[in-house]
Design brief:
- The protein contains 13 helices and 25 strands.
- It is an alpha+beta fold and 469 residues long.
- Strands 5, 6, 7, 8, 9, 10, 11, 14 and 19 form a 9-stranded antiparallel sheet that branches. Strands 21-22-23-25-24 form a 5-stranded mixed sheet, sandwiched between helices. Strands 1-2-3-20 form a 4-stranded mixed sheet, sandwiched between helices.
- Helix 4 packs across helix 7, helix 4 packs across helix 8 and helix 8 packs across helix 9.
- The protein is globular and about 75 Å long.
- The protein binds flavin mononucleotide (FMN) and manganese (II) ion.
- Flavin mononucleotide (FMN) binds next to strand 8, helix 5 and helix 8.
Length: 469
């Protein structure tokens, strides 16, 4: 059991105790300012705003701001993270339902006309955003056909006290809603804000249809996740989360939603999209408002890590020589995939590329490297590409393929895929002897241990103005 990730609060306490939580001054505005502060600290510090300008609800962000922290939350070393995620998707753990009395997210219940979402410090992220958007809501909905429950994050535009726009890209929730709509039924949804870090992570699982993310969350925790039934529907929500919003997506209704600066760092234009009527809000007594700012590192990494894990599993099915995979931040953790492969037959690296490009619509560019390349080191990947790849020999291009509609260079999502085989050509291996001083396994760690020191006194002696007395 991982005590420091039982709730968002437990994780914040852990970050505080390890000097990774920055407490900001009062009066920072959720409009643009919060975003700028969070970006300045991202990856080094989570941030808490005890009193954002104009609001009584504290705001937190940046709590999963780098890959090491995500691994730490999952209780593993960074190099074990993808395997750990894969294991939990394979072996989900059913949730444990608690009653209303013991669900922290039910300490305060607001219903009907008293609902007022404008009391929450919902941030406005980018200059041309249509307004404030809830960016950290885990949207829960039950598939009317199968009875299974889905959980995913969707951006939610704050239209009014009790109405939210929603963008559902074509995945599980969109499919669940369109089936409900085709039967003329409204779809009850819950929105959980400030769930524990592992539940947030689970919402990004690239799992099979019908796989319940709340059960993956349980597996990540190593024990059943505590959930409570919504007041207005049968949807189950994490009992521990800070704020729960309940509502319905009405069939056949649309409202203008967007523009919004998306994870790709481009605006997605305004369009008619479905919306949610909110019926109830329940919270902890002193709730924290959690935000996952668009195109922040944690936004990209949350989806990135979960995708990497599943994509690597899938790649290994076809190509057992695949060893590791990254979706780097520079590719928005979506569009660029770098795979590391072990010994293989001539030509097989290209097959690997072809598989990789087809594994997910979003993968637009793929690079395959040998196992001597550190795929967490962008410089080293560039080095491998520039010294091992020849464009007329090692390039794969597939035209008119389905990509990401959020990538503005596509034609409504249709574009081209590019693959670079940056592995050493097997027949010419002898020309690729990499130069090192003394072997490379420990990359200098041994030398640091042997010769490095922290001799402050020596610095004084060397640089001091006058000789020591
Ligand atoms: C911070 C954040 C914001 C996101 N916003 C959206 C969104 O507005 N619309 C959307 O369709 N997906 C969004 N996603 C991606 C989905 O949550 C993600 O792909 C999820 O795994 C989909 O789950 P599903 O396959 O169960 O539908 C967002 C992800 C994150 C981390
Ligand atoms: Mn799903």
């Amino acid at each position: 059991m991982l005590a420091h990730v039982e709730s968002l609060r437990a994780w914040l306490r852990h970050l505080h105790e390890t000097r990774r939580l920055m407490v900001l001054q009062d009066g920072v505005s959720p409009k643009f300012e919060v975003g700028e502060v969070v970006s300045a600290f991202q990856g080094d510090h989570a941030v808490i705003f005890p009193k954002p300008a104009g609001f009584d609800v504290p705001m937190v962000a940046g709590v999963l701001g780098n890959r090491r922290w995500i691994a730490e939350a999952a209780g593993v070393e960074p190099h074990e993270l993808l395997a750990r995620v894969a294991e939990t998707i394979e072996a989900p753990i059913p949730w444990h339902e608690v009653d209303t009395g013991s669900a922290p997210t039910r300490e305060v219940v607001i219903e009907g006309p008293d609902v007022d979402l404008t009391t929450l410090p919902v941030p406005t992220r980018s200059e041309r955003d249509a307004g404030p958007f809830i960016d950290s809501g885990l949207v829960g909905a039950i598939d009317l056909d199968t009875g299974t429950q889905n959980l995913s994050i969707q951006r939610l535009q704050l239209f009014s006290r009790n109405r939210l726009g929603i963008l559902m890209l074509p995945r599980d929730l969109a499919a669940i809603f369109s089936r409900a709509e085709s039967q003329g039924r409204e779809l009850p949804v819950t929105i959980s804000i400030g769930a524990d870090p592992l539940t947030e992570l689970s919402s990004q699982a690239v799992a099979g249809r019908g796989q319940q993310e709340l059960e993956i969350a349980g597996a990540l925790h190593g024990r059943p996740l505590e959930v409570v039934k919504a007041i207005t529907s049968d949807v189950r929500v994490p009992a521990n989360c800070e704020i729960t919003i309940e509502g319905r997506i009405r069939p056949y209704r649309r409202a203008l939603e967007g523009p919004f600066g998306e994870f790709s760092r481009y605006y997605q234009p305004r369009a008619l999209r479905p919306y949610i009527e909110v019926d109830a809000v329940t919270t902890r007594r002193n709730p924290l408002y959690r935000t996952i700012l668009s195109y922040s590192a944690e936004h990209l990494l949350l989806g990135g890590v979960m995708r990497e894990s599943t994509l690597l599993q899938r790649l290994k099915v076809v190509f057992p020589e695949a060893l590791d995979l990254r979706l780097p931040l520079g590719g928005s953790c979506r569009y660029l995939a770098i795979a590391k492969i072990g010994p293989h037959h001539p030509g097989a690296a290209k097959n690997c590329l072809l598989t990789l490009l087809g594994l997910h619509n979003d993968i637009k560019q793929a690079v395959v490297v040998d196992d001597d390349v550190d795929i967490d080191d962008e410089e080293e990947v560039h080095w491998a590409v520039t010294t091992r790849f020849q464009a007329d020999r090692d390039l794969v291009v597939a035209s008119n393929t389905l990509g990401s509609p959020i990538d503005p260079s596509t034609d409504e999502g249709v574009g081209a895929k590019l693959g670079l085989d940056a592995t050493v050509p097997i027949k010419r291996r002898s020309r690729f002897v990499v130069a090192f001083s003394t072997g490379r396994d420990d990359r200098g760690a041994r030398e640091i241990a042997r010769f490095g020191s922290d001799r402050e006194a020596a610095i004084e002696e060397l640089l001091g103005e006058s000789p020591p007395a």
